[in-house]
Amino acid sequence: MIIAFILTGVVSMLAAGGGVYFIIRALDRSRKQDAKTQAAEIVHRAEQDAENHRREVEIQLKEDAMRQKEKIDAEAQAMRQENHEKERLLNKRQDMIDKQGDDLRKQEKLVETNQRKLAEKIAEQKKKVADLQEVYDQQKQTLHELSGLSREQATERLLTNLETELQNEAGAVILRHEKKVAEQCQEQARNVLLLAIQRYAAAHTAEATTCTVDISVDDMKGRIIGREGRNIRAFEKVTGVDVIIDDTPGVVILSAFDSIRREVARLTLNRLITDGRIHPSRIEEIYNEANNEVQVFIQRAGLEAAQEVDVQGMKDRVVNLLGRLYFRTSFSQNVLRHSIEVAFISGLIAVELGLDERLARRCGLLHDIGKAVDHELEGGHPKIGADILKRYGEPPEVIQAALCHHDDARVANPYTVIVAAADACSASRPGARRETLEHYIKRMEELESIAMEFPSVEQAYAVQAGREMRILVNSGQSTDETAAKTCRDIVSALQERVQFPGEMTVPVIRETRTTQIAR
């Protein structure tokens, strides 16, 4: 029974499985049928879409073709218009060329006509020149016959007259231009110099270096001399100066060419007199102290001078030489104060002329630096100063100013002229220097003798301390024009043979007097 139940269950399961199989097959065939139907629909829709797209593409292509055609037509129309415009311009230019060609042909005909007329006039002029030459030769022959002069004699006389006329005309031209230039230059130079000197107000007195030592009692002279002259010999040996002790009360004179050495000796002697202990060892000790003090003073004086005129960057040796000028005088004028004054005036003149004020001051301050050692080296102080400044690397303008401020060489830059003018202003102002009467008279006679060397000069007078030379010329031997030439020649001779500060005015006076007596 159990087996039968099992068999029944198995059969039922097989039957159920078969039914399921058939059902699945049926469903599978149904799905395949549906898939075919859907695929057919999809293919149909795809064919329709492709047909629609094909139509759209054809329409788009037709539209593009139409637009391209319109564009090509427009471009063709523009090109036709442009070609038409070019053709019109070419026609216009062709007309202009044709017109210009006609004008050129007319001008060629006019030029040919003018050339023909010109050739005729030239031929006519040549004929007239030939006729004039023939007449001139006849007149010249007649003139030779009437005057009795040969051709050479007539030429010589003509050239002589021509030379005389040219000299007179040259003198007149020189006189006219010199007067004009002198007035302009004098006015401008006067304004510049007056302004510079007015802006720099310096004292008109200069310190004078003394070489005397005052003593309180005359007994001190014996102590200075010492036993058998021991002290005075030691003093002279150490200091290098000569001690002069005479009967003059209360004074001992120190004599030495070197002003610095004389100053050291003066300080030494003053301190020895104050100290009272005078013997060789003490003399040497005090001398060393005084010498060191003077050297410090020299360096300080140089620095103060450089600071006063605002000149910087100088070497210590140059500053030392500048300070040594404090003890140097020229015609009683202190050279250091003179250099400072020249520096200020040079700077002011440079400002008026639009030049470098600092460089002008440097040139003016160092222009007399050679005077610090001119007693130790051979040569004049301009050459010595220029060599020193070149050795210590000063600018070329400064070296040139030191070398040529007395017109010893050719001037190469304006600063040399400025320094020379400032040096003359400082040296020639009232109270700056003193000059002996003998030297003054000798200089005046030399100036007058140079002027009297010229044949037409009758009298010559040097006035204003040699700053003006008045010349009187013979009116019968000279004219106004030749007087101008004589004045120029005298000035050239004075410039070549005489050295003078500043400038010298040379007026030449020619006077004609006619006197008659009425009865």
Account of the protein in words:
The chain is mainly α and 519 residues long. It has 14 helices and 8 strands. The longest helix is centred in the N-terminal third of the chain and has 146 residues, at 2-147. The relative contact order is 0.05.
Supply database-style keywords.
3-stranded antiparallel sheet, 6% strand, mainly alpha
* Number of extended strands: 8
Which residues sit in consecutive blocks of at least 5 with pLDDT less than 50? Answer: 203-210, 430-435
Number of H- or I-type helical stretches: 14
The biggest sheet, with number of strands, parallel, antiparallel or mixed sense and barrel status, is: 3 strands, antiparallel
Distance between the termini: 216 Å
What value does the average pLDDT take?
79
Along the chain, the helix and strand elements come as: HHEHHEEHHHEEHHHHHHEEHE
Q: Which percent range fits the helix content?
A: over 70%
